[in-house]
């Protein structure tokens, strides 16, 4: 039994360094995610300023005007699919296909935030539990310096894991709201196009 418990102890201790490396990589990735969210926000604000009123008051006769308002390049997922919707041959089946493709691409973008929100606390807890064991051993043997060092790792992995999770959760919530709004706009434009064809 002692051999098994020592093997488990050794195995869990070998996982500490990979865990810390993963936490550091995910922390850097979460900082990049915040930067990407800010860039996406600025692009969305610019596009909303340009198109929100035109989409809200869109009629069958104003479809060409909306097409002319589009930015020259596809600066976001929404613009890419709106351009495709406005320039394609009107078809209910193709409109449904585009909306489903938009949802799939939005989900792909949200997957990273979702992963960080879930994996951050897991990695933080793994680091906490692994470093807690040597800290308790140091406490029992009177090695206060070793215990203090291991407790630093315990708290650091927990904090970094929670920060990663928080960033993932915030970016997930914000992007979900944005994509839901953009999907609603695309659906509305598709319906106006279908109405124009029926007339």
Report on the structure:
It contains six helices and no strands. Helix content is 89%, strand content 0%. With 199 residues, it is an all-alpha fold. The protein is elongated and about 80 Å long. The model has no long low-confidence stretch (mean pLDDT 87). Helix 4 runs antiparallel to helix 5. It has helices at residues 2-14, 16-56, 63-69, 77-87, 92-141, 144-198. It has one domain.
Question: How would the blueprint of this fold be written?
Answer:
Elements: H1 2-14, H2 16-56, H3 63-69, H4 77-87, H5 92-141, H6 144-198
Keywords:
199 residues; mainly alpha
Radius of gyration: 25 Å
Q: Please indicate the percent range of residues in DSSP E strands (runs of 2 or more).
A: under 5%
Q: Enumerate the spans where pLDDT stays under 50 for 5 or more consecutive residues.
A: none
Q: What's the number of extended β-strand segments?
A: 0
Q: Mean pLDDT, as a whole number?
A: 87
Largest sheet: none
Number of helices: 6
Count of all domains: 1
Specify the overall morphology: elongated
What is the percent of helical residues? over 70%
The assigned structural class equals mainly alpha
How far the N terminus sits from the C terminus, by CA atoms, comes to 81 Å
Q: What string, H for helix and E for strand, traces the elements in order? A: HHHHHH
